[in-house]
Amino acid sequence: MSRPFNFTMSPMPSRGHGRGRGSIRPAAPGTRNIPQGQNQGQGQSPGRGRGRGLTRLMKFWRRQVEEWYPQLQQRTYFVPPVFMNRTGERVVKIYGTEVLVKQRPVDDVPQGAGPVLFNSDVREDRSQQNVLKCLRKVSEAGQEVMFVLSQLNFKDYLPCYSAAAASKLPTPKDFKADNKDQGDFDVLVLHRHLGILVGEIKALGDNFQELGLSQQQQEQEVVKKVKSALKQLDKADDVLSHLTQDLQLSPRIVKSLMLPNVPAALLRQALDSNPPLKQAVCQCLDLPPTADPTPHCMTSDDLDSPETWWQQRMKANGDDPAMKDKSVYLDLVSRFCGPATMVSVFCSSDPRLGHQPDVRTEGEGVSETGHRFTRFMVTPSQLTVLHVSPPWAFLVGPPGTGKTFVLILKALDWIRKGEPVLVFSTSEQSEGASRMIYHQLEQTLVDQAERSRLHFEQLDLWNTEQDVPKAVASILQKARQGILNIIADEAFTSNDATAFRNLCTELHREAPQLKVWAAAMYHRYGPDMMTEVKLTEPLRSPPGVTDLVQITLVENPFHMVHGYTAGASPLPTVGPPLQEFVHDGPGHEEKDLADCMTCGERVARVLKEVLRVGGADRSTKTPQALAYRDVFVLSSWRLWDQKKATLRGFLRGLQAILGPHLGLVAPGSVSCPTVPTISVSDVASFTGPDVVVAAATGHVVGLERKVVVFVGNMSISATTFQHGASRCTAQLLYVKTPEPYPVRFLK
Fold first, then answer.
1. How far is residue 416's CA from residue 93's CA, in Å, rounded to a whole number?
2. Structural element, H or E, at residue 509
3. Which of the residues 111, 193, 219, 603 has an alpha carbon 20 to 30 A from that of 355?
4. How much is the pTM?
5. What domains are there in the chain, each with its CATH number?
């Protein structure tokens, strides 16, 4: 968890489009569409007069994209790699610390309100996500080689390269049209074999039932949006034709309407009822006048299986002859994804950067995602709990719902009122979370007098008859010294809460003046005298992670953990996609996954080569590069042999690639001579060596990292998976064996 930042909201960036539309001459496959009246001689003639300056410039751009995207000729890349939602937050100062409070989206701007999040923004972002999800499915199903760009503003293409201007490389600034550099490409696909796809997304349809629209009204809304989309598609086509006119070979440009919330039947009915519009759609999409354009448009019917739409729109015409030369594809990628084109994502005004962050590599996407999910963020309901402030409170809910941060804020409240606070750990499993709270408070408190009011104690409540009396005596002694406020996170990490309940009962009887705030995943086990506070809105992990954890919560109700409930305001991002590794097939002959060196090596290569863990920052405008210490390797099994003091195969595989950048959290006196052993305290405070931290899940309960490698099966140990996977704030790498039985039979 990071030191609090002073965040302020900036106005929502415009995602508007230009309204110009050029007159297009039909083009043969493999040729450019040039707007009538445009000076075809503008810029450089194909293949002529580029000059040494542009040649050197293109070589530099190519080197950069080949470094950033080393497999650009073999796989798909998304740029930016993660889509960032527009979010609504306001800054409040609570107990002397500035925090972000989530805000509900609205339809209208309240009078006197600052920047707000509109419901229309949420719908647009959700539609964009659905389209990108479809394209990701297309990529995975067909092993497509392409770059998928989203929300690329015209003005961000080669915006400030003087060398490009000197060489007369075509840019939007010299495009002969009204509002020449206003607008954007909602989706721009550069395909290695099929040419270019430009898509225009319209967000409508998901609230038709909520608005109570009749069938006729729905069709009218579709007609209105389609008319607008055609203008924007034609302008995007004009701009693309202009930007690629100097290439020796002209890539095919294909256009598509994308209505991810509109059923195909509704779109077809709307077009059939308006023949002139249907003909205009056919003309825009280069279809025969009598064709049915609906299959060539992405609709809600395509969300689960977009392969049919892809086949109709892109593959039906075969490979683009212009793309046979690999250099054409590399040239396009270098221009649209290289260092001269800005790739920015939405962000509130952030003092780290002072501008919209440039996020283009997968490691940067993971780093930015992790940063956004670890900001000091609370919900309005959590603020209410803090203001009501019952003296004895028990926070319950699934992992990653902000329980720990609420405890930190409560401790700050007490300390800044001049009251001492004791942070105590109830067991070895809760030590990490408790020390992280202590460390965060220590870092936040600047005044030495305030720091002197902060205390920590490690207790163990394994044996109810022996340990509870000792703990009661220790806490009562501190109470006599004036320490009357207690914080206990992860108060119990299983559904056996007997010891903690007995402790609270004795403390409440002996010292009713105490104030105790505690937290745990499990409900129905809290002490009777404590006010139970239910927190179920996910705040600390992207949806891909919480969706997996939710499966274990729903399918396994016996552990008494509430399921997640969606909040009114969107999360910062859906995050990067889950990466799965299955211990199966050639090279995986070991019976136990923990002994498989091949699996360890595969994971390590992703960390090093894809996420670039341990690399250097690309520039001051980009998110911080992932450090080794940003990675957890967690398992329900021991990944090392205690008796032999050696690593098992999986960790040896990691070590073969990571070298000395691997460390081990081991209990007690356990050590391994080939890797450094790290204390839980160092892991909680982000101190110690910069190494990937491997640990049994129980030793780091409550701690977080941007990248989590979970080794094991959710169906075998649901509780361990809940504690382990939920520690991920960005990228989850799930290493498992083939599921031995369906998830519904969780033990």
1. 13
2. helix 498-510
3. 111
4. 0.89
5. 52-86+117-359 (no CATH), 380-534 (3.40.50.300), 543-745 (3.40.50.300)
